[in-house]
Amino acid sequence: MEASLHFRGVRIPCYSRTPRLMHLSQVSSALSPSRSLYAAVENACRRSRLRAKSEKRRIEAVLGEEEEEENATESRGSDAVPFTCVMKFGGSSLASAERVREIAQLVVSFPDEKPIIVLSAMGKTTNNLLLAGEKAVSCGVSNASEIKELSFVKQLHLRTVHELGIDASVISVVLEELEQLLKGIAMMKELTLRTRDYLVSFGECMSTRIFAAYLNSIGVKARQYDAFDIGFITTDDFTNADILEATYPSVAKRLYDDWISDPAIPVVTGFLGKGWKTCAVTTLGRGGSDLTATTIGKALGLREVQVWKDVDGVLTCDPSICPVAEPVPFLTFDEAAELAYFGAQVLHPQSMRPARDGEIPVRVKNSYNPKAPGTLITKTRDMSKAVLTSIVLKQNVTLLDIVSTRMLGQVGFLAKVFSTFEDLGISVDVVATSEVSLSLTLDPSKFWSRELIQQELDHMEEELEKIAFVNLLQHRSIISLIGNVQYSSLILEKAFHVLRTNQVNVQMISQGASKVNISLIVNDSEAEKCVKALHHAFFESGDLSELVPEFGFGNGSASLLPVET
Ligand SMILES: Nc1ncnc2c1ncn2[C@@H]1O[C@H](COP(=O)(O)OP(=O)(O)O)[C@@H](O)[C@H]1O
Ligand SMILES: N[C@@H](CC(=O)OP(=O)(O)O)C(=O)O
């Protein structure tokens, strides 16, 4: 089993190099300032570092020239690279032939850009493939071809190629293979995580083949790439793989070399990689194409990564909860990462990491409304007039209260608790602690990771009960207030006023040393009501500036909008 450590939904694998280890130490400072907790985190870091070193040696042995290639990439420099940006289009932008046409027009409407295109699967293809796989397990081989979701996927793609006037042969082999795979699953009567990744990969493999063929058919030279064939090397954690450092030089070299020998717009599958030990297709977790895009951006040192969505940028709240949510014009990588970790579906939780490391600006745009300015995510921004940026809701989390069974001052209590989580591979989101007690949240839905099922929760409880009294509370929600924690008193005062008015009792609060996030834990049943009320108070009533003397009076909510640096 691969050793790994989870904090705040972030998996820190043993392969990691410095950036992720640094992230862990940043996370440690986000926790309440308890020495024992720091010690626990430090120990975990040390263990992880040692493992990372040995893994690094193994990877380098496998990949041989990694360092040389890295230097070669650096010396090429961004000026010499024939690409200026990544343009990533998600499933919501690619739901039909008409949308494919519009996206192609959008790509060519920026003549100054030399893009690398990253695509997700069309529409709801990934969900349909997953459902088809689940049905195949129990439907019997002779019925596998008739699975409703398979027919839906087939029809969508065949109709699309037909309507675009391109040859169906670009996807017919892929579709045949897909059907064979479902028959195989039906025969085996099981769907492993590895097979599940292979199954969903057909979505991105088809959308990119169709898009590249369409660009070529309208006279725009394009070349399709499967990410797993061009150097996207990942851990072997199927359904939630991590990109390994070796990916950056490999991908840069392949795209660059191909361009030099035969220039064409690259159209790359998002979401997919190749496990470094198994060599099997892996996926980067749901919504992982954003991460593919920022990885390519960093690999080639590009000017910008654009992620095209179906909303006008990152919004002040999930629009399905608050339809009046407004776009946030500017964000820092830290704010965007926090927003994504804490459940804002608009960005993949890990996607900011390569962008932050490579300092590549990320622009979130609306493919249905390209003129809208969107959200620009950069390393820094002027925070002097920013109070609250966005409210994020993560539902169905589990709250765990742990109280040491020993006396006050017991050495190593927190270290033991955290090593239990490490051993069980359980991800911790929010933590509040005193010397002998600890409250934390776990995310059982973990849609970008394996399921934390009841059995695992029971096992965890059993382990922790060896050293502590444990109280497990399910169906809780984390409301994250992303913004300028310099104004935390103001934010908290207002938030608590709203919650008190709505007769909601906050069960846990965590601000820690994070500069951008205050988390409040409430019951699931009250969560949406709270978010709506908070959004109304912070973003719809427009009087927040009056509470911040240095902002001056009477500026209204507009004065709270961030200013680009
Ligand atoms: N804070 C938020 N800002 C913007 N969109 C959000 C936010 N929270 C949730 N969403 C949802 O995220 C969706 C966009 O993300 P996603 O579906 O992953 O796009 P794509 O599939 O095109 O990559 C939006 O349609 C919106 O409903
Ligand atoms: N198709 C994959 C990967 C992805 O990134 O999708 P989207 O960009 O549509 O969220 C998924 O549905 O998870």
Automatic annotation (TrEMBL):
<keyword id="KW-0809">Transit peptide</keyword>
<dbReference type="InterPro" id="IPR036393">
    <property type="entry name" value="AceGlu_kinase-like_sf"/>
</dbReference>
<comment type="function">
    <text>Involved in the first step of essential amino acids lysine, threonine, methionine and isoleucine synthesis via the aspartate-family pathway.</text>
</comment>
<keyword id="KW-0067">ATP-binding</keyword>
<comment type="similarity">
    <text>Belongs to the aspartokinase family.</text>
</comment>
<protein>
    <recommendedName>
        <fullName>aspartate kinase</fullName>
        <ecNumber>2.7.2.4</ecNumber>
    </recommendedName>
</protein>
<dbReference type="GO" id="GO:0009090">
    <property type="term" value="P:homoserine biosynthetic process"/>
</dbReference>
<keyword id="KW-0547">Nucleotide-binding</keyword>
<dbReference type="InterPro" id="IPR041746">
    <property type="entry name" value="AK-LysC-like"/>
</dbReference>
<dbReference type="InterPro" id="IPR002912">
    <property type="entry name" value="ACT_dom"/>
</dbReference>
<keyword id="KW-0677">Repeat</keyword>
<keyword id="KW-0791">Threonine biosynthesis</keyword>
<dbReference type="GO" id="GO:0009089">
    <property type="term" value="P:lysine biosynthetic process via diaminopimelate"/>
</dbReference>
<keyword id="KW-0028">Amino-acid biosynthesis</keyword>
<dbReference type="InterPro" id="IPR001341">
    <property type="entry name" value="Asp_kinase"/>
</dbReference>
<dbReference type="Pfam" id="PF00696">
    <property type="entry name" value="AA_kinase"/>
</dbReference>
<keyword id="KW-0934">Plastid</keyword>
<dbReference type="GO" id="GO:0009570">
    <property type="term" value="C:chloroplast stroma"/>
</dbReference>
<keyword id="KW-0150">Chloroplast</keyword>
<dbReference type="InterPro" id="IPR001048">
    <property type="entry name" value="Asp/Glu/Uridylate_kinase"/>
</dbReference>
<feature type="domain" description="ACT">
    <location>
        <begin position="402"/>
        <end position="475"/>
    </location>
</feature>
<dbReference type="GO" id="GO:0005829">
    <property type="term" value="C:cytosol"/>
</dbReference>
<dbReference type="GO" id="GO:0005524">
    <property type="term" value="F:ATP binding"/>
</dbReference>
<keyword id="KW-0418">Kinase</keyword>
<comment type="pathway">
    <text>Amino-acid biosynthesis; L-threonine biosynthesis; L-threonine from L-aspartate: step 1/5.</text>
</comment>
<dbReference type="InterPro" id="IPR045865">
    <property type="entry name" value="ACT-like_dom_sf"/>
</dbReference>
<dbReference type="Pfam" id="PF22468">
    <property type="entry name" value="ACT_9"/>
</dbReference>
<dbReference type="GO" id="GO:0009088">
    <property type="term" value="P:threonine biosynthetic process"/>
</dbReference>
<dbReference type="InterPro" id="IPR042199">
    <property type="entry name" value="AsparK_Bifunc_asparK/hSer_DH"/>
</dbReference>
<keyword id="KW-0808">Transferase</keyword>
<dbReference type="InterPro" id="IPR018042">
    <property type="entry name" value="Aspartate_kinase_CS"/>
</dbReference>
<dbReference type="GO" id="GO:0004072">
    <property type="term" value="F:aspartate kinase activity"/>
</dbReference>
<comment type="pathway">
    <text>Amino-acid biosynthesis; L-lysine biosynthesis via DAP pathway; (S)-tetrahydrodipicolinate from L-aspartate: step 1/4.</text>
</comment>
<dbReference type="InterPro" id="IPR054352">
    <property type="entry name" value="ACT_Aspartokinase"/>
</dbReference>
